[in-house]
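Example 3.2
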Amino acid sequence: MSEPLVIGADGGGTKTVAWLAPLVDDRIDRVLGRGLAGPGNPRAAGFEVAQANIAAAIDAAFADAKMPRTTVAAACLALAGAGRPDEQEQIAAWAHRQGIAGKIQVCGDAEPILAAASPDNWGIALIAGTGSLAWGRNEVGETARCGGWGYLLGDEGSGYAIGLAGLRAAMRAADGRGPQTDLLPRLLSKLGVQSSEELIAKVYSPEMKRERLAALSEIVFDLATTDEAAEKIIEAAALDLAELVVTVARQLRLSAGGYTLATAGGVLLHQLNYMDRVLPAVNGQLHRQQMRWPDHYVIVEEPVRGAVALARRRSSVA
C-alpha cells in the first residue's frame, strides 16, 4: 500500500496493543492491523523489556495487515510508566533509532483515553487497572496529573492496592488483630495453600508479580456485599480514586462548563459496580468544594484508539 500510515500503541502493566491505521480516515475507525505483546510499562517491566514488547506488538500489527514492516508517518506510544519527560525522551530516542515513524509522540497511558472519549480533547481521564492515575486537560490546553507514583508510593484505588489490602485484612484476621473475614479462606484457596503461614512463601516468591497480586482484587470485589472487611476496602478504594479526579479538576479549575470523565483500566472495565461507588464519591467531594461535576462519563474499552488519534494529530505538527 502507498497510502501514509500511523501507529498507535497502548502499553500497560500486562500487555501492549498496537494498531496500524491509515493517516487519513473519514470513518475514524479503520484499522489495517492489530498487534498484541507483553507489558509495555518501562518502569515496571524495565525499559529493555517494554521496548521489546512495543516492537513485537508493532511487528504483529504489520503481520496482521499482511504488510512488510516500514517507517510510518507518525506514531503515538502511550505507555504506563512514561508520563514524565525523562521516560518519554528515552523511549522516543529508541523509537527513532528503530525507525518506527517519521514523527513520534511518547506520552503516558491516560492521554489517549481522553482523546478517545472527548471530541474536544479536554476533561479528565481516570485509570484503575494494576495501577492508578488521573490526568486531565482544560479548555486552554493546560494539563495536570495526580497519582501514578507506582505500587511502592501510590496506586491508590487500583487492583494492586485492593488485592494487597485484602491480603493484609486476611493476615490481621489470622492474627486475631482484626475481625474474622471470608477473605482469608478465599485467598488461601485462590493461592493454593492450606494455612496463613504458607502465604509467606507464596506471596514473597519471585513468581508473585504485581499483576498476580492485582488479580486478587477480584476476590475482594466478590465479597464486598457480604463481608465487612471487603466492603471497607472497596469503599476506601473508591474514595481514593475520587480524590485523584477531584484533585485534577481543582488543579485545572474545572469549576464551570461541561467536561468529560473518561475511565479505563481492567478494574474499572470489569468491575462495573466499582464506578457506582466512585462516581457518587467524586460528585460528593466536588460538591463540598463547590465545583462542578462531569457532564459526560465515558468508558473507554480500547485506549489504543485514542493513541491512533494522537498519532494523526502528531503528523500535522511541523
